[in-house]
Write a structure and sequence with these properties.
about 350 residues, alpha+beta, 3 domains, four-stranded antiparallel sheet, two-stranded antiparallel sheet
């Protein structure tokens, strides 16, 4: 059997003695690293974050309460809700809905205003023209502009975007929005949380509120689409039946007024025929009206309700970048790098 080799502990005293003669290097390297890293981080624009959360009505409301509660405790509430509902839009794919181009395109015409009041425009124009960038990004952009001719974007943001033919600028803005808006769903409670990041606190809150409203509109439009089609169909039938009934009523009234004193059997038979035709069209009108009322009730029943747990509010403090923390972390990293280099050199 091979003998186990003794693991020697790290001799920190020896390390300190080795590094102590080189302590002056730390006096130069550490403060320099702190200053340089801070000067670099300070060039990165600060950003703010605003979060909203809402609880949409579950499509599987008819599911057994005890089974749903048990499933939620194991984190399977969403999966069982999918089996219990005919909806193709369930809570787990809300993040994908928000990242879709169609959803982002709906946010572009939203009017925003900066906290200082100097800028008031749509979200598309704000993203394109009012964003601060580090100086090196501006420098790289100018260098690229010297070699590559770029066509100026003339889209004003209020027009309808052609999703199938996005320009390069529009595609970059869409990618930027995907990085700014985050959506998460709690699998146990189905609570949807939306977090928006932006350089201006007021714009951040306005886009968070707009995203919440757009998501609610999307869910409502989807879940009520079939019921709305049925309602419009029965309403069309009701309107046609009403028009036919009113025409028949007018014909019957005119004929009856024109032959008030007539007692001939042929006239009475004609009048009775007109009355029967009018009654038949009235019955059709009544039936279609009842169907329309039932479709209207089903439309109302299909419309989901939303509970806003946390509404949008203007953030007070910036969320990042943490300039001092990053600078101190870089200084600590430089300490270990310098120490490792000196030890390896010895």
């Amino acid at each position: 059997m091979e003998e186990k080799k003794d693991i020697k502990p790290i001799d920190f005293t020896k390390i300190v003695k080795t590094l102590w003669p080189h302590r002056k290097k730390y006096y130069y390297v550490l403060p320099t690293t702190l200053i340089i890293s801070y000067l670099i981080i300070v060039c990165i624009p600060r950003y703010y974050q605003c979060s909203v959360s809402l609880a949409p009505e579950n499509g599987g409301a008819s599911f057994s309460g005890s089974i749903s509660s048990l499933a939620s405790s194991f984190g399977m509430g969403g999966a069982l809700a999918k089996l219990n509902t005919e909806d193709a839009i369930y809570s787990e794919i809300y993040p994908d809905v928000i990242k879709s181009k169609n959803f982002i395109a709906g946010l572009m015409p939203v009017m925003v205003q900066t906290k200082d009041g100097n800028t008031k425009c749509n979200y598309y124009t704000y993203l394109r023209d009012k964003q601060n960038e580090p100086w090196w990004n501006k420098l790289i952009g100018k260098i690229k502009g010297c070699f590559v001719s770029s066509q100026k974007d003339t889209f004003n943001g209020s027009e309808k975007l052609d999703i199938m033919h996005l320009t390069k600028v529009q595609d970059l803005l869409f990618s930027s929005v995907r990085g700014k808006i985050k959506c998460s769903v709690d699998k146990k409670t189905d609570i949807v949380s939306i977090t928006v990041q932006d350089q201006d606190p007021l714009v951040c809150a306005m886009i968070a509120d707009a995203t919440c409203q757009k998501l609610q509109e999307f869910i409502v439009n989807y879940r009520t689409n079939k019921a709305r089609i049925d309602y419009n169909y029965y309403k069309k039938l009701r309107d046609e039946a009403k028009s036919e009934y009113e025409k028949s009523l007018q014909v019957y009234a005119n004929y009856s007024d024109a032959h008030t004193s007539t007692i001939l059997t042929s006239y009475q038979a004609k009048l009775e025929s007109l009355e029967n035709e009018m009654q038949a069209k009235y019955n059709i009108y009544t039936a279609t009206n009842a169907q329309m009322q039932a479709a209207d009730a089903k439309l109302q029943e299909s419309t989901p309700a939303f509970t806003v747990i946390e509404s949008a509010s203007v953030p007070v403090k910036p969320a990042g970048p943490k300039r001092m923390i990053i600078s101190i972390a870089m200084m600590i990293l430089s300490f270990f790098v310098l120490s490792g280099w000196l030890l390896l050199k010895k």
